[in-house]
Protein: Glycosyltransferase family 92 protein
Amino acid sequence: MSISIPFRTLETIPRRIEQSYEPDFNLTDEETLTRMEAEIPNVPVKFWRSVEKKLHIMQKGGNCAQMPNIFELAFNNLVWQQVKTSKGTFYLYSAYFDIRPLSPAPTLRILSMIEQVEPTVPTFCQIWFENSTKPVIANVSQYRILWNKAWGTGNKIHPFSIECEVPSVNNKTVVPVAVSVVENSCDKASNLVKVTHRTLEPGKKKSIAVCVKRMQFVHEEPVFKLIEFLELVRVLGAEKVYLYAYEPQPNPRVERILRYYEAQGLLEVSRVTMPASRPNSPILRHLFFEKHGTLVYIHQMVSICDCIYKSFYQHDLVALIDLDEVIIPENGLTWREIIKNVTNGTGYSAITFNNAYYPLNNPKPENWNPGFPAEFPMLNTVYRLANYSKPGDYVKPFLNTSDVLIAHSHLPLGCIGPGCRRKDVPVSAGTWHHYRTDLKGEMKNQPSSDNTTVADYSLWKWKDELVKRATRAAKDLGYL
Structure:
């Protein structure tokens, strides 16, 4: 089956990476503000600049709830804004305005890490709107934990959505531009978080996005792995990839790839760090995660939910996969086609695919000469374990942005309404390909200890297009 990929011909790729991203430091004021927004994306930089000269009147009255200057904000580890309360510290990452049709009320959802398992301190949202000098004050209605406490409480910090219902303005639903969280309603805040609300362009249909919740490389340089992954999900039907990279990201060759795909519009990179006093130098952070394994999963919940929330209105489905994974339909179908086939128009919260392990260290078939570069790991790995993982236990999903509220790497944890609706896709229709070097710790997901392998060339249905694109990108970047 031929695959139509709109605006994705090779001719649309920037000719050379040098022509597409090298920064120019001779900037206008507008360009400076744009660069600032990229550096501190959770701060409403342009809104602040528009009211900077009248900050003294940006208040409720009588010095109540005065808007802070961005030079007064309490930043923590680059990407977090800090709120100290009488019962612990909050670290705010991002804020989203939820007016999805299924949402019971217009709600601000502020993604955060909190040094409490069950925060009880009453707090308030100071909500700011364009063309208004007075904030609207709303009670924090809920601390929604983004985690199952039964899985562990690692290192005394937990992910939450801090939620405030947003009152109407003159009987209209108005999108806020910023929000501050405070313990007392009239406090001058130490935080000012930009409210993100990405609407769909007129005439454009919602598309499929990919969420890569964590990128952290210390002991490897995954140049070809990253290129192959990005080109493959594009061929399968992803219009956008949201990738969360731990900062600092120490590899300049990887950074070059990220900027290359950002320049094309395929990739959006969000920088993440560990909040509070936890380490953020790459090697020490890696060792810290090895010692505090549960904390890895706790922390990445903010990235997962951030990706879902930013996709509310532009994407109807998001695939939660890592760089060593891909969901492959059978019969050469695209992602959109396989989802249409298996759902029959039913709006499931999650469409899940069972796991198939592809050991990267398996020998190649005899006389292996596939006619494409040996550096691309997925294309060059055709043996998988004969047994799929236990049905329903170990899956990867497409999530429906219309109702999902919370999700972890494999399934939704909470949805708007009575519950999350799940559709398990049979392996005859499609599987989750999982490429791993060491399977010792993974065999618990298998129905038995049998590690017999079989050849599976299902990914090769996209081989010609993938090889063309990945090779072109690697040459553009100077890596082939």
